[in-house]
Task: structure prediction
Amino acid sequence: MVSPLKTPEGAPVDLGLIEGFYGRPWTWEERAETIGFLARHGYGFYWYAPKADAFLRRRWREPWPAETAAAVKGLAARCAANGVRFGVGLSPFEIYRAFDDAAKADLASKLAELDAVGVWDLAILFDDMRGDLPDLAASQIEIVHWAAEHSHARRILFCPTYYSDDPVLDRAFGNRPEGYLEALGVGLDPAIEVFWTGEEVCSRAYGRASLARVAEALRRPPVIWDNYPVNDGPVMGQSLHLRAVTGRPAAMASVTRAHAVNPASQTVLSRIPALSLARSYRLGEAYDYGAAFDSAALEVLGADLAAQLRANLSQFQDTGLDRLGAETKAKLRERYAAFDHPGAREVVAWLDGAWQISRAEIEAS
Result:
């Protein structure tokens, strides 16, 4: 089993990964390798929810192709072998517009499919959907409770449509209903856990006061859906998010239920900030993000590649792909192509634009 992660004060930390980004998903081999790697550093769960899996989103009413179902079942087994809880994020697209008998029958079939592959943790996700609808909270509560009653999952989680204070959600999906979080807090079974990304969709920091306010509204500590180091989309895809985490103090553990990291598109490079987050929880006030990067990069990449990445850190994370210029990109590409390491190959692929995704592709997911 995974060694329990604790803060310096001894508070337990439920830390894991949620693969919830847009664009090209990880391969099954990459997922399995990452599960094993992060389990050694205190990551206790892995939740499969890539936006590219249409059978969990727009085509959720259809069963997975047989090969996908077999691969998911194999991933669940890999998690079990590493002492990691396996979960799936299901986004039944706008089912709350008509939760009728047909919808219930389709949802029951999907839940049975998830039970069959070995899902321990079930997340019902209503993010990135229209929300300015009458009785939104009540409709979503009914669906989540129904799913909980018809699933064998041991843990049920729920992502609200308005999962952050960020006004960008209101601009994209309509103005949030007044008292939405409070209505969820009153109506949801206390055993159901609720996701929250923070004061922003991609929060730069988490404050104890802000999290306590959300916990009071929800009547339960939130599960943090941490959108760092995720780098999907036409804007964030311009950067490699490599720096060690900041603004994620160990004190978060006392006002949250769990902490789920949404990783970057680059599997190996994601492990650097992921390791730094575990270090931040373990060290508390003694955490040094510069030293955390050096330690994690050394473990993930080896000494030579880690030193090279540190030298180019600002270019990759701050300057951005399109602003590097053709000559600089060519030189960087040559430099990293000389390394025989999957992390270096991810840098080269990013320089080549391998993960670029348009707004139209995101909206169609």
